[in-house]
Target: Copper-exporting P-type ATPase
Amino acid sequence: ATPMSIIAGIGRAAEFGVLVRDADALQHATTLDTLVFDKTGTLTEGRPRVVAVEPAAGVATDEMVAIAAALEQGSNHPLAHALVEHAGPRALAGVGGFRTLRGLGVSGDVAGRQALLGNSALLAQQQVNIADLEPRIAFWSAQGATPVLLALDGKAAALFAIRDPLRDDSAAALRRLHAQGYTLVMLTGDNPATAGVVAKEAGIDRVIAGVLPDGKAAAIKMLQRQGHRVAMIGDGINDAPALAQAEVGIAMGGGSDVAIETAAITLMRQSLHGVADALAIAKATLRNMK
Ligand code: ADP
Ligand code: MG
Model:
C-alpha cells in the first residue's frame, strides 16, 4: 500500500478530468454497489424549457404566462428560470407577500389575485381542485415533462409543461456503469410519473421521487441501512447533505460551490462518463497496491 501508487491514481483520474480529494476517497470508491443520481442538472442538462402552456377553460394564455413569470422572478429554481425566460417582456412586475415553498413551488399576490405555482402536491395541500387538469398532468408527465400548475384565488388556472433533456451522454455513461455491475438509482424532488419516464430513458434501475429537499440525505441513509454502499452524484445546494452522507460524494463541476466543497470527487467535464472513469481508476489503483 504505497502512497506513491495512490498519488499516481489521483493523477491518472485528473487526466480524465476527475478531481479526487484524497486517498480515502479513492479507497471508498472501490467498495460501492449502488450509485444514486440527482435528476436535474446531473442526469439532465439542468436548463429546463417551457414546451407548452395550457390554460383552463376561459383563461387567457398570455396573462397566465405573465403572472407565472412575475412570481418566479423571486425564485432561483431551474423551473423558475424557464418560466421567466419563456415570458420575456410579458412578465408582470410587483408581487406582494412572495413565499418560496421548498420542494413544492412559490406563492404571492399578483395583479390583485392570490397566486400559487408549483406541483400537484402544493395545489392539493392548498385544497385547489385540479381534477380538470389531471388528464393533461398525466399526458405531459408521460412525455417526461414536469407539469407546473398555476392556481389563482384558489382555482386551477393553467398548466406549464417544462422539459429538461438528458445530457447527451448520460444514457451511454449509465450503460458503462451498469456493465460494471452497479445498481443505478435516481433521487429527485420531481413527481414520480415524470421521473419514471426520464429514468427509463437514462437506464436507471430504481426511482426515489417526490423527495423534499431535506429528504435526500435520509434516502441515502435508508439505502445504507439496507446494506448498500452508496455514491451520491449531484450538483445542487440541496444535494450537499446527501453527498456528505454517502460513502462517496461526487459533484458535477459547474454545479453549486456547496456541492463541490462537500464532495470527495468532482467531475470537471460535466459528464457522467467521469463517474465510470473514476470508479474504474480507483479499482485499478487499489488492485496494483495488493
Ligand atoms: P428537484 O431539484 O429534484 O427538481 P426540488 O425539491 O427543487 O427538486 O423541487 C421539487 C418539485 O417542486 C419540482 O419538480 C417542482 O414541481 C416543484 N417546485 C419547486 N420549486 C418550484 C418553483 N420555484 N416553481 C415551480 N415549481 C417548483
Ligand atoms: Mg440537481
User: Anything to note?
Assistant: The first strand starts at residue 18 and ends at 20. The first helix runs from residue 3 to 15. The chain is about 40% helix and 25% strand.
